[in-house]
Design a protein that fits this description.
Layout (H helix, E strand, L loop, with lengths): L3 E4 L3 H13 L3 E7 L6 H5 L2 E6 L10 H11 L3 E3 L9 H9 L3 E2 L4 H8 L1 H10 L15 H11 L3 E5 L9 E3 L5 H16 L4 E5 L4 E10 L5 E13 L2 E7 L6 H17 L4 E10 L7 E6 L6 H8 L3 H9 L16 E8 L1 E2 L5 E2 L6 E3 L6 E5 L14 E9 L2 H13 L2 E3 L5 H8 L2 H5 L6 H4 L1 H4 L6 H15 L40 E5 L7 E8 L2 E7 L13 E8 L3 E6 L2 E10 L2 E6 L2 E6 L18 E3 L4 E6 L6 E2 L4 E7 L2 E6 L4 E6 L6 E2 L4 E7 L7
Parallel strand pairs: 1-2, 1-4, 2-3, 4-5
Antiparallel strand pairs: 6-7, 6-8, 9-10, 9-12, 10-11, 11-14, 12-13, 14-19, 15-16, 17-20, 18-19, 21-22, 22-23, 23-24, 24-25, 25-26, 26-27, 27-28, 29-36, 30-32, 30-35, 31-34, 32-33, 34-36
Helix pairs in contact: 4-5, 7-8, 12-13
Length: about 700
């Protein structure tokens, strides 16, 4: 076995690999970019080496810098994780040439299976059924369009060199093929450095089933059962489970045998995954999609039901050992489900988010396992993939695993960053998910029902109570000079007669008006007034019309506060919130959802937001980089016309004209880094009678 292994990756996968290395007594070497200097994987490794600036091309994708780090630290092997260079044949060859063991398959297998076109031809020759699609490599845009028309709409455009859903485009309208092919090429080039595309027939309401395989250098190949990966958004998985409720023992054996043949056909060694698309109405008609020549994000669910550590198996195989068990020795026990927590906003089309982790609490005991790369105080940024962590639950059966996972997501606190945790809880409670009636289009089809209808009124009420609590100490202070604790209690060091808290000498206390706005929500007026030991809270608009919640004031008080939680009582009902103070404001989280209350003070909240954003203004929907600008000031545009492209976390978002008109302002150019809600351009509508 190796004595020192370099982990050529970051985030939760690097932390995961380091954990097994530690258990086996192997010295771990982490690498990091400037953006990750304080990252968790850097803190947990035995040794860490800086390999460059934040840009992945100059750090995590630099073969030379990774090999230099291995040489400087005396590493004998390199674990690539997944993403970045994990499926890069040139990197695998470079490791071998440098005398390093690559903890993955041979470069020849990576090269073959990394080319989806050659991969389909190879496994088809081995008797594995494949999805109908284009043939040949290096097809031009015109050839791709022609192949799509022959196959028939709808079709799926896929990067030949990629995976993870990046660059994939579902096209239902032949008139949009040209634009979609161009966009798919851009994303493929950005993500994989190769814009070669193929086109395949789209199977409506399909299920995504993958088979985990293990192979050693001595000719032994086994499969470890399947994973159900049908719950996806934008062709990227969000929930995975093992085993699948769809497969009978006979179908499992058949698909497993096909996966083993696919692995044998390319001379595979190590851990890999063979992915199949399965028509929901006819599971026996499954088709090979691709082979991922690396460890998968969702590998923990297989580990939990087989009792095998897949990273340990990878290490042993790479060191030359035999598997040590046969297919008949593999048993599947219980059920495991994984949820991917990503820095994204489901209510805004799953656009990437970012921010500093202000408070963190991740369950990881008993039947729950959390694989995470997070620590409090770290800035998640928008440079890399948006996935932050994975929460995995195990149970004796599927129903138990679902219950455990929903509870674990409720106990997951990541304050300071908008995540999809609340969305995942609602998805796991969807009737079709509970029954196991899944397909890859379920999320998009039922997205409206999976999004919260609005912010619970107790969130705003709690914010108001916190504001009152922050202002209350002012009654006992007469100094206007800031002192210790002022940052923690804004407004505490002002004259009591200047405190707009509703206090008055005699008579009925007056209402104090505050306004709060959460991202994606309209401002809400909250009125408070003291009532003995409690505070009356009224959520209203204008002169009294209720915005949401009770039509009459609720009586509330803060029951307790800790560094991590605040407990409030509203009309006899107790609510516990996760919270953290920051210079920007108070963050509140409940049941896996996170809300940010923009920098409020004791009198009124700073409404923040998009500044000049309005009907004519185009603002950045996410923090990222402008990659394409298609117009100039003075250009006349039509409604819906594509004007700019913003990219973040390897995902493109097209900015379109909100209406016909003229571009009167353009504040960005290709390469400009933008913040969420930053103004990009202004399109002034046509005067009546004008036309474009």
């Amino acid at each position: 076995m190796f004595s020192t292994v370099l982990v050529a990756n970051r985030g939760e996968i690097a932390v995961r690999v380091i954990r097994t290395l530690r258990q086996l007594g192997i010295r771990s070497v982490a690498v990091f970019s400037d953006a990750d200097a304080d990252a968790r994987h850097v803190r947990e490794a035995d040794t860490a080496v800086r390999i460059g600036p934040a840009a992945a091309a100059e750090s995590y994708l630099s073969v030379e810098r990774l090999l230099d780090a291995a040489r400087r630290t005396g590493a004998e092997a390199v674990h690539p994780g997944y993403g970045f260079l994990a499926e890069n044949a040139a990197f695998a060859r470079a490791c071998a040439e440098a005398g390093l063991a690559f903890i993955g398959p041979p470069a020849s297998a990576i090269s073959l299976m990394g080319d989806k076109i050659r991969a389909k031809e190879t496994v088809k020759a081995a008797g594995v059924p494949v999805v109908p699609g284009s043939s040949g490599s290096g097809l031009s845009d015109a050839e791709l369009a022609s192949a799509a028309e022959k196959i028939g709409m709808p079709v799926l455009l896929k990067p030949s060199a990629g995976g993870g859903g990046k660059g994939m485009r579902l096209v239902r309208d032949a008139d949009l093929l040209g634009e979609e092919i161009a966009a798919a090429r851009r994303e493929a080039r950005s993500s994989f450095g190769d814009d070669t595309l193929l086109v395949e027939r789209w199977v409506d309401r399909p299920r995504h089933i993958e088979i985990q395989v293990l192979a050693d250098a001595h000719g032994n190949v086994v499969h470890l059962g399947e994973r159900e990966c049908s719950l996806q958004r934008r062709h990227q998985k969000v929930i995975e489970e093992a085993p699948s409720v769809l497969l009978t023992p006979e179908l499992r054996a058949s698909m497993g045998a096909a996966a083993v043949e696919a692995a044998r056909s390319c001379g595979y060694v190590g851990a890999g995954t063979v992915e199949f698309i399965v028509p929901g109405g006819d599971p026996s008609s499954y088709y090979f999609m691709e082979m991922n020549t690396r460890l998968q994000v969702e590998h923990p669910v297989t580990e939990l039901i087989t009792g095998l550590d897949l990273v340990e198996q990878q290490l042993r195989v790479a060191a030359g050992a035999e598997l040590g068990f046969a297919q008949a020795d593999v048993t599947l026990t219980g059920h495991a489900i994984e949820a991917r927590i990503c820095a994204e906003d489901p209510a805004r089309g799953f656009l990437p988010s970012g921010g500093t982790v202000l408070a963190l609490s991740e369950p990881s005991d008993g039947p729950v396992r959390t694989d995470s790369g997070l620590v409090a105080g770290v800035d998640t940024g928008s440079t890399y993939d948006p996935m932050l962590s994975k929460v995995i639950a195990y149970g004796p059966d599927r129903a138990a695993a679902l219950r455990v996972l929903r509870g674990a997501l409720a106990d997951t606190v990541i304050l300071g960053v908008q995540t999809n945790a609340g969305f995942l809880r609602r998805l796991l409670a969807h009737p079709d998910v509970v029954s196991g009636d899944l397909d890859t289009g379920l999320v998009e089809r039922d997205l409206a029902s999976l999004l919260p209808e609005g912010v619970p009124p107790e969130v705003y009420a709690t914010a108001a109570l916190l504001s009152v609590a922050h202002a209350a100490p002012a009654r006992n202070r007469v100094s206007a000079v800031p002192g210790p604790g002022a940052a923690d209690a804004p407004g505490a060091w002002i004259d009591p007669f200047d405190a707009a808290d509703g206090w008055r000498l005699g008579g009925t206390p007056a209402w104090t008006v505050r306004h709060f706005r959460l991202p994606g929500q309209d401002p809400v007026e909250v009125r408070t007034r003291p009532l003995g030991a409690e505070t009356e809270v009224l959520l209203a608009v204008g002169d009294g019309g209720t915005a949401q919640g009770p039509g009459s004031p609720a009586r509330g008080r803060i029951v307790s506060r800790t560094p991590d939680f605040v407990t409030v009582e509203l009309d006899g009902v107790t609510h516990r919130f996760s919270h953290a103070r920051s210079p920007e404001g108070t963050w509140l989280g409940r049941d896996g959802d996170t809300w940010h209350l923009q920098g409020h003070d004791p009198v009124t909240a700073n409404l923040g937001g998009a500044g000049r954003a309005g009907a004519d203004t185009l603002a950045a929907p996410m923090p990222g980089t402008v990659t394409v600008v298609k117009v100039a000031v003075g250009d006349r545009v039509t409604a819906g016309q594509s004007l700019l492209v913003v990219e973040a976390m390897k995902m493109e978002h097209i900015i379109s004209a909100p209406h016909a008109g003229t571009v009167t302002e353009l504040d960005v150019s290709p390469g400009t880094t933008v913040a969420m809600d930053q103004v990009l351009a202004v399109v002034t509508p046509e005067a009546e009678g004008e036309s474009t």
